Amino acid sequence: MRTPVEPPASAWSFGDPTDYDPLDDLVAIGADLEPGTLLAAYRRGLFPMPSGTPGDPAYWFCPVRRGVLPLDGLVVSRSLRRALRDFEIRVDTAFDEVVAGCADPTRESGWIDHDIRRAYRRLHELGWAHSVEAWQDGRLVGGLYGVALGGLFAGESMFHRVRDASKVALVGLVGLLRDEHAGDRVLDVQWQTPHLASLGVVEISRTAYLRRLGRALEVPTPAGFARPGPAGG
């Protein structure tokens, strides 16, 4: 079984999330992307994004309106349900390839830079970051990656090379999270977009998110992330 390794504590403090500006998603600038810093941020409801300018410090966000996907609210269309039969879902068998797919510089609004890729590779090596992959005919055709902390899965990005492949990976992820602790789990997608809304993502307030996060961190990580292999559902 793969047990996550707790890294050294961060040298940085993100303060009390209840004191953040109630009107601004951006709550901090700076710190580093060490594993201990990343985990401390997620445990307080934050996540990093690069500024877009090489050499600039990381930006840390805790959205005023948070996008979450209720595990009983995933919208699976008739066509997507049919498409599920054409894919195999795997977990953590191609983490680097999934992140590379998400970081493809030809994608519109690409934001994943070298520092982000390296930081999440280190989290993956420690057992905290995971990929859920859609395979077809022996080829990786889509997937997503994120961070699993107890009952929190913080989704970072997803990609597809064939139609519906990223959605299939999302269905696989939801299947992993639907266990006896599903009522306390949180599937965080950062912000709601029209595309994510069509899949069932809703917005909740920062206060509600932090309250749910506190409960989520007290439950165990899903068993499906304990070792690489095919996903359960």
Question: Number of DSSP helices?
Answer: 7
Please state the overall shape, judged from the principal axes of the Cα atoms: globular
Structural class: alpha+beta
Oligomeric description of these chains: single chain
Major β-sheet profile: 8 strands, mixed
- What is the C-level CATH assignment of the largest domain? Alpha Beta
What does the average pLDDT come to? 93
Q: What CATH architecture of the largest domain would you give?
A: 3-Layer(aba) Sandwich
Query: Which stretches are low in confidence, meaning pLDDT under 50 for 5 or more residues running?
Result: none
Strand fraction equals 15-25%
Rg, rounded, reads 17 Å
Helical amount among residues, as a percent range? 25-40%
Biggest sheet strand order reads 10-4-9-8-7-6-5-11
Number of strands: 11
Termini Cα gap: 19 Å
CATH superfamily of the largest domain: Leucyl/phenylalanyl-tRNA-protein transferase, C-terminal domain
* Tally of discrete structural domains: 2
Pfam families: Leu_Phe_trans (PF03588)
Protein name: Leucyl/phenylalanyl-tRNA--protein transferase
Family: Belongs to the L/F-transferase family.
GO molecular function: leucyl-tRNA--protein transferase activity
